[in-house]
Amino acid sequence: MRMCTPSSGIGSRTPSWVSSRRIFEQTLMDLQKCSNIKHLKEMQAQIMKANLHQDPFVAPKLITAFSLCRQMPLAVKIFNGIQEPDVHLYNTLMRAFAHNSQYPQAFSTFFDLQENVLFPDNYTYPILLKACAGGPHHLLLRQVQMIHTHIEKFGFYSDVFVPNSLIDTYSKCGQLGIVSAKKVFDLMPERDTVSWNSMITGFIKMGHLEDAHALFDKMPHRDMVSWNSILDGHVKAGDMNSAFQLFQTMPDRNVVSWSTMVWGYCKTGDMDMAKFLFEKMPVKNLVPWTIIISGYAQKGCTKEASSLYDRMEGAGLRPDDATLISILAACAESGLISLGKRIHLKIKRSKFRHSTQVCNALIDMYAKCGNLADATSVFEEMKERNVVTWNTLLQGFAMHGSGERALSFFSRMTREGIQPDGVTFVSVLSCCSHAGLVEEGRHYFCLLKKDYGTVLQIEHYGCMVDLLGRGGHLKEAFDLIKTMPMEPNAIIWGTLLGACRMHSNVELAEEVVDRLVLLEPKDAGSLAIFSNIYAAAGNWDGVAKVRSKMRDVFKQPGASAIEIDDEVHEFKVSDRAHPQSSRIYHMVDRLKQHLKQVGYVPRAHY
């Protein structure tokens, strides 16, 4: 069949089928860069008509193109149409499944490859290891160990590409994994720079900075990744002095190097140094702008954050979703609603349609700043919502005690066909707790186990203990803790202790405190609550005993924050550092007098 007529000219004529295939290959390469499914299906029809669907060069490209368009059934159909698929085609399908987060299917394809008596090549195992890394975390180590056995069996240690992938994936398997990664590294007959960098990055990920540095010092050749990895390790450890010394000795620096340092100083609260390095940067992309703006927003510095945001836009950089989400998260954390509102206004005015994730970040920001009306407004205006959207709004209701409204939205969520997850029920149970809806809480706790088949997490038990404790059902809460399939942590026991204080149950409080001291011997918070329980009961001998125990422990002072005129002010207990502290305490004294006049009597305390 002639697909096209070759142009006339001197010399040998290229066969028409070769020309046709080249045209199709070029078209498929272009299609891999886009998501035009209609165009792709048209091309598939032409390929089938030209009988090129069995072609060993065309078929893999077509499978890849369909996988990039999230059309895996069509990709599988192409694969199944090949009479004798080779290992390259199997690898292509495995990679397609991994790209679409269909990890079990990637493994199934690997097993099919073996059943068809085909031998894996040096690309098979790295693809399979990537599929492992994206799958269930609790299965990760076992799966990697299984693949490791295959790699040793078929002798792929000599191909540096394969053990490099093994080191990288083992490094994602926790402390046991990093030990295995080091064994692989030590057994490698040949290492390249990627081998060293993967091992260093793995050590840093696990917090083993000394091991990472020892390896870094032994490296025969260091590249930019090596320097940036070890720099990142010092920054994550909070050792900014060593990080700065290392930064100064670097033979070359890129945007990642500078951004890492700016992020480190923002993280430690040294905004002056962060700003100094930011201004020194020779080249800035969205990443350092996002870091510095988020850093100021986190500190509650509206003017600085807003000014930098304007400068970023003035430099011709349009914030992407990652930038907006990061800045909005910082606003939510610090309660900086003014900057959050300003960003929201810019989003509304822009012609670009932002993602569901950005809208979720807006809901979170408004909810954490106490503005449930605007949070709900953003929710209602969204064209597409996912389970995170609903969870974020429900968490906002829970945070501010709007229990009835939260349950109403939960009912609406199920009516609209959104499947609740474990996080949803944490919010629902928390709402029931804060609203005093004990029976409703019991109902949803049972629903969680029976109707939704969700595995109960420690957070669900914590919500139930809080719900029962607030409602005065202390024995039931204590019995529930005893039936937990996991070991109760300090948060669980601390929640019950708070309920003991609320309902003046000294006997149970004594038992709970013993458990808490075993878990957190250096935490004075539980002892302070216990002392208040004794004081409320008039047991001053008990108060004296607890106070003597508290001499050797430290209690982190509580803090509150408020935003006034685009600036967040933070206050600690007995804090007189604020320049207007005299006026503030004068107002506090007036409020105390007013409370006494209306009959408020404070609880007794030590």
TrEMBL record:
<feature type="repeat" description="PPR">
    <location>
        <begin position="355"/>
        <end position="385"/>
    </location>
</feature>
<dbReference type="Pfam" id="PF13041">
    <property type="entry name" value="PPR_2"/>
</dbReference>
<feature type="repeat" description="PPR">
    <location>
        <begin position="192"/>
        <end position="226"/>
    </location>
</feature>
<feature type="repeat" description="PPR">
    <location>
        <begin position="289"/>
        <end position="319"/>
    </location>
</feature>
<dbReference type="Pfam" id="PF20431">
    <property type="entry name" value="E_motif"/>
</dbReference>
<feature type="repeat" description="PPR">
    <location>
        <begin position="254"/>
        <end position="288"/>
    </location>
</feature>
<dbReference type="Pfam" id="PF01535">
    <property type="entry name" value="PPR"/>
</dbReference>
<keyword id="KW-0677">Repeat</keyword>
<dbReference type="GO" id="GO:0003729">
    <property type="term" value="F:mRNA binding"/>
</dbReference>
<dbReference type="InterPro" id="IPR002885">
    <property type="entry name" value="PPR_rpt"/>
</dbReference>
<protein>
    <submittedName>
        <fullName>Uncharacterized protein</fullName>
    </submittedName>
</protein>
<dbReference type="InterPro" id="IPR046960">
    <property type="entry name" value="PPR_At4g14850-like_plant"/>
</dbReference>
<dbReference type="InterPro" id="IPR011990">
    <property type="entry name" value="TPR-like_helical_dom_sf"/>
</dbReference>
<feature type="repeat" description="PPR">
    <location>
        <begin position="86"/>
        <end position="120"/>
    </location>
</feature>
<dbReference type="InterPro" id="IPR046848">
    <property type="entry name" value="E_motif"/>
</dbReference>
<comment type="similarity">
    <text>Belongs to the PPR family. PCMP-H subfamily.</text>
</comment>
<feature type="repeat" description="PPR">
    <location>
        <begin position="386"/>
        <end position="420"/>
    </location>
</feature>
<dbReference type="GO" id="GO:0009451">
    <property type="term" value="P:RNA modification"/>
</dbReference>
